[in-house]
Amino acid sequence: MVEYAGVEDLKVEFNTTSAADGGRGMYIQGCAYCWVRNVEVSHAPQRGIEPSQVYRNEYRDNYIHDTYSTESIPNHGYGVLLEGYSTSNLFENNVLYRMLAPLTIEMGASGNVLAYNYVKDRSYYGTNWLMWTTASHAAHPSMNLYEGNYGEGGISADNIHGSASHQTYFRNRILGYQEKAPDGTLITNGLQSVSIFQKNYSSFR
Q: What pTM does this model have?
């Protein structure tokens, strides 16, 4: 495991216009006490920042934008995807702009904090499903704190590829709509499939 390593003041820009190309802006695996600060990830075909099996890392003051997703390649377009039983990590004061799924925790990640992040202009190819600002996705994220985040979409947990529980949502501002559906349709919703033992103290428009 790598310890006490960080990336700061870097721009990662992909020269692609297709989600089919694949690729991550940053893939961090097996790091403890590491950090990513003041990094810009632009036009990543798959995921902006993807930490996996990490412990007590910090991701702060980053700008992730324009990740790609299409109907034929739905598992792309993530901003931050935290996975692989990662724990005790902090995501704070990041800006996520123009993407499918901005803040997602999956595969057993627990005890993490996603706080005071700003999400704007999520894009989704369909008009029948409001995508999330924050989500649990694949079993079994638990005991994570979502605090003070701002976003247009919904809060989603426990409804795709497995369960989630014991999450806390505190003082988030979630607008509950998608501004720019492909056909101009306004999609509205708010809280989706949040399971028992989850506490929500957030604001919906």
A: 0.86
